[in-house]
Write a structure and sequence with these properties.
This protein has 10 helices and 9 strands. It is of the alpha/beta class. It has 2 domains: 172 residues, Rossmann fold (3-Layer(aba) Sandwich), CATH 3.40.50.620; 91 residues, 2-Layer Sandwich (Pantoate--beta-alanine Ligase, Chain: A,domain 2). The strands form 2 sheets. It has a 6-stranded parallel beta sheet, sandwiched between helices. Strand 3, helix 3 and strand 4 form a beta-alpha-beta unit. The mean pLDDT is 97. Bound molecules: pantoate.
């Protein structure tokens, strides 16, 4: 496996691979890889000739006071894990090269990014779409792989790809969970053992929502209330949002019908975690 840090080298590598007719799969990450990322690498491996994993903690998607400065990293471990999962290249550029002095061009999705996480992190998705477009232009992937845990991010990237006619196929893979249901996230690293126990309330409350829906409840307000009650009962948990929305538009749903996303963001202590559940209620 090769480690490339230079942007023009990465682009030259990809141009040459494409010249040989190779299909490139890209897994964009911020590093500190876990099974969720590795499931994306394996999917990319199965469908591509060349698999590139980018590792770049992107400063523009962090707001003031967020965890940019302490985002966990372990490049040596990431290299080993990525290689074992089938990566051919790790692309690990510096922030100075990605955002040179005077950088002033951003890509902004203007509708979907105003919902859910966009409300409490107003510049987050602009940072994500900007860096993802840059990565697409550098790595030239045929397909790029994202996790469903960041459901809103995946939707926004798909919208960007459609709106800007980017020749990249977007693959979104299921959330990978710990045995007790906690969705894997590099940020789980921040949790103390006690907080780690409390963090299971995110998935627990989604399961509770699914149970209510299974028993016939269709009123979003009732389901939301049950989810919020459960989260609020967990020690240090503080709700950022609990939303029940149409999966395609992210508009609030009142009655559950069609493709629904139940999405939540919860602070456990200082750590902000997200999770979601997608439901298809079209059979009614
Ligand atoms: O999901 C992430 O890890 C990041 O938002 C991404 C897509 C790598 C962009 O920095």
């Amino acid at each position: 496996m090769e480690l490339i840090t230079d942007i023009s080298k990465m682009q030259a590598f990809s141009l040459s691979a494409k010249g040989e007719g190779k299909r490139i799969g890209l897994v964009p990450t911020m590093g500190y890889l876990h099974e969720g990322h590795l499931s994306l690498v394996r999917a990319a491996r199965a469908a591509s000739d060349t698999v590139v994993v980018s590792i770049f903690v992107n400063p523009t998607q962090f707001g003031p006071g967020e965890d940019f400065d302490r985002y966990p990293s372990d490049l040596e471990r990431d290299k080993r894990l990525a290689e074992e999962a089938g990566a051919d290249v790790i692309f690990h550029p510096s922030a100075g090269d990605m955002y040179p002095q005077g950088f002033s061009t951003y890509v902004e999705e203007t509708k979907l990014s105003k919902h859910l996480c966009g409300l409490s992190r107003p510049t987050h998705f602009r940072g994500v779409t900007t860096v993802v477009l840059k990565l697409f232009n550098i790595v030239l992937p045929d397909a790029a792989y994202f996790g469903q845990k960041d459901a809103q991010q995946a939707l926004i990237i798909k919208r960007m790809v459609r709106d800007l006619n980017l020749p990249v196929r977007i693959e979104v893979l299921p959330i990978i969970r710990e045995e007790d249901g906690l969705a894997l996230s590099s940020r789980n690293e921040y949790l103390s053992p006690e907080q780690r126990g409390q963090a299971t309330v995110l998935y627990g409350s989604l399961v509770q929502a699914a149970r209510l829906i299974g028993s016939g409840e269709r009123k979003a307000s009732r389901i939301k209330e049950a989810v919020m009650d459960m989260i609020e009962s967990a020690g240090e948990a503080r709700i950022d949002y609990v939303s029940i929305v149409n999966r395609d538009t992210l508009d609030d749903a009142e009655e559950l019908r069609g493709n629904i996303l139940i999405a939540l963001a919860v602070f456990i202590g200082k750590t902000r975690l997200i999770d979601n559940l997608e439901l298809n209620l079209t059979e009614e």
